[in-house]
Specification:
With about 650 residues, the chain is mainly β.
């Protein structure tokens, strides 16, 4: 992920004012940091109200497609308690996502390690991600190599700390699919700074390990999706089945490959299989038409994704296509014969003095919060090293890592083909790889800091999603208010929050992932679901128990969305300290007796969860059940310190 690029959102800013405000600031190490901001405002706003951008130096403004990385020279020698320290200006933090150059080097290293030309040519690269270092390495980097320098992260030792001259080399983890042998292998490649700076084939990384993983299949790739669609459209029995439904123009047909699932041994992962869902548009020259509103039912297709051939086909049932309706399309209502709302007045989001947050690479500081931003092809946005600066107590760690690692969408309709809709959108497709470039729409308003993301494509090339992650501030209503009834005086505090977000599309669904940081120390994770429903077609007069009829001949099967968050908490813990525990809290009604003579008593009962097995718990709103991650070594006002969930 690159944090040095920002682009103004075209639909939000008039072209005459489509400039990027650039600011520079200095850290405690006198390192020059480029702060690029984009201003996106609501409809009808006047960008001329913004302050004049400050001018950065020409050297700072020059940008290359890939930032050069080299082994910097030693800057100075210092001494701490008799220990000689050679300070070096490190170029990439251990938790920074892999750069485009590092991805290229990792791919070239693995490809060169192939035993034969055939093996090398058949390699397909599913993902290339950073091998996240040990927490002690992260602490060392934050303490002595990257601003703001925080030596308190390193435990005190007799004679003082022994500080190395440089950090360990970064490593990349590659998931590689061999299209010829149908094997999946995992590689670990070491990247030095010299390696990462060079794209040339003779400057490669070092293979640390490689292993073949049996009985699994990696996520499908966009290139496979496109090839599968073409293969199905060219299959003569499929074309004949579509002709029976009145469709001869294959440009109208949409083929969405879905993972086959695992319903029997025939679906075993020894084969790379897909069962596509079929949809059909009405106009081939209308790119904004909602083809998902016309599902094609009754056609069974099974595709061998390794060899890209249809291995099973059956036209089981002729179900008429739902009638076309232009009001279901993506375009604005006026272009479809409808009427858009015209009574909404302009709403301006402006920050005349700029944002309150500070950015140094991927390091964010805002309102006593500080953390790092990362990104992976599977999870998308990752938040690292979350901490809160708490007055005299200084920097208090909260979490080492926060992300959404998986999600599942089970459908409740037992009819074909909907019974096999059970999508694991992170593991089967990748939330990060399907992320949007936010330059294509006004997903954020105000002063925005954008971050780019780099990925490998199926053949090993590097692709960049520009403006992939959005960082901005939001007003969040009232934080606190009180009015004294005796004096009539009132006090109110507005709530401000910092939001980090990205949005992805997986087939018909859009997911917006948001991490909110509040001034009262609260962290909130939010997922917004939008996009298009995955629909089914009905015969005339037919009803469906397991769905909702939304239009003639069209129904939405019942389904759910479950999200799995990974939270590596570190409440008031330095690296390696095992002081956190999970406590479950339930509302408890006191039994009638001497402690409850008025029969009104209730209290919060706490139970320590001592194992992961014991911690497999369900939500219970009847007892206001929640969980607290607390540090049993920190007690304040006779209570353990912790974070509630």
């Amino acid at each position: 992920m690159a944090s040095t690029q920002e682009k103004a959102t075209p639909c939000c800013i008039p072209k005459a004012k489509d400039d990027i405000n650039k600011k520079t600031s200095s850290s405690s190490s006198s390192t020059e940091v480029l702060q690029n901001w984009s201003l996106a405002v609501g409809s009808g706003s006047d960008p001329s109200e913004n302050p004049t951008p400050k001018t950065a130096s020409m050297a700072t403004l020059i940008r290359r497609p890939v930032e050069p990385i080299s082994d910097p020279p030693a800057t100075k020698t210092t001494t701490t308690k008799g220990i000689s320290i050679l300070t070096r200006a490190q170029t990439r933090h251990p938790l920074d996502p892999l750069s485009a150059a590092e991805i290229s080097v990792a791919v070239a290293t693995v490809r060169a390690a192939g035993a034969t030309p055939e093996v090398r040519d058949s390699m397909r690269f599913i993902e290339v991600v950073l091998v996240e270092p040990h927490k002690h390495v992260v602490a060392l980097a934050d303490a002595y190599f990257f601003p703001p320098f925080q030596p308190s992260l390193i435990p005190r030792t007799k004679g003082g700390p022994v500080i190395p001259s440089k950090l360990p080399p970064r490593q990349a983890r590659l998931v590689v699919y061999n299209k010829r042998s149908n094997e999946i292998s995992i590689w670990i490649v070491e990247l030095s700074e010299v390696h990462a700076a060079t794209r040339g084939g003779h400057h490669r990384g070092k293979v640390i390990s490689s292993k073949v993983v049996l009985n699994v299949q990696p996520p499908m790739d966009a290139m496979e999706y496109a090839e599968c669609e073409a293969v199905v459209k060219d299959f003569p029995p499929f074309r004949e089945a579509m002709k029976k439904r009145g469709i001869e123009d294959m440009d109208l047909v949409m083929v969405d490959p879905w993972c086959v699932g695992y319903h029997s041994n025939a679906d075993a992962p020894s084969r790379r299989l897909a069962k596509p869902l079929i949809f059909c548009r009405t106009e081939s020259d209308c790119p904004m038409e909602n083809g998902y509103a016309r599902p094609v039912e009754g056609i069974h297709v099974l595709v061998d994704m390794q060899n890209m051939v249809v291995i099973e086909f059956e036209d089981r049932k002729l179900v008429p296509l739902p009638p076309a309706d232009p009001l279901r399309n993506y375009t604005a209502g006026e272009t479809r014969g409808g009427v858009d709302r015209s009574d909404v007045k302009p709403l301006q989001i402006i920050q005349p003095e700029g944002p309150s947050f500070r950015v140094n690479g991927n390091f964010i500081e805002w309102q006593k919060w500080n953390f790092r931003i990362g990104f992976t092809p599977r999870e998308g946005l990752v938040i690292y090293s979350v901490a809160y600066v708490d007055g005299n107590r200084g920097r208090r760690p909260v979490a080492h890592r926060l992300s959404f690692v998986e999600m599942v969408v089970p459908y409740g309709d037992p009819n074909d083909p909907h019974y096999r809709k059970n999508a694991f959108d992170a593991g089967e497709d990748g939330l990060g790889k399907n992320a949007h470039s936010l330059k294509k729409g006004c997903d954020c308003l105000g002063y925005i800091k954008y971050f780019d993301a780099h990925f490998t494509n199926f053949t090993g090339g590097v692709e960049t999603i520009e403006n992939c992650v959005c960082l901005h501030e939001e007003d969040h209503g009232i934080l606190w208010k009180h009015q004294d009834w005796r004096t009539g005086l009132a006090e109110v505090r507005r709530s401000r929050r910092l939001t980090v977000s990205f949005i992805c599309t997986v087939a018909n669904d859009e997911y917006g992932f948001f991490w909110h940081f509040y001034q009262d120390g609260k962290i909130e994770a939010e997922v917004k679901l939008t996009g298009i429903l995955s629909l089914g077609a009905l015969q005339h007069g037919e009803t469906r128990k397991y769905g909702t009829i939304i239009a003639p001949g069209l129904y939405a099967p019942v389904h759910q969305h479950f999200f799995v968050a990974r939270m590596d908490m570190a409440v008031d813990c330095k690296p390696g300290e095992p002081f956190n525990q999970v406590v479950e809290v339930n509302l408890k009604v006191e039994e009638p007796g001497k402690d409850n003579v008025h029969n009104n008593a209730f209290y919060a009962e706490e139970e320590l969860l001592r194992s992961e097995l014991q911690a497999m718990r369900d939500c219970n709103p009847l007892t206001a059940r929640h969980w607290i991650v607390s540090n049993f070594s920190h007690i304040s006002l006779s209570k353990l310190q912790g974070y509630a969930f």
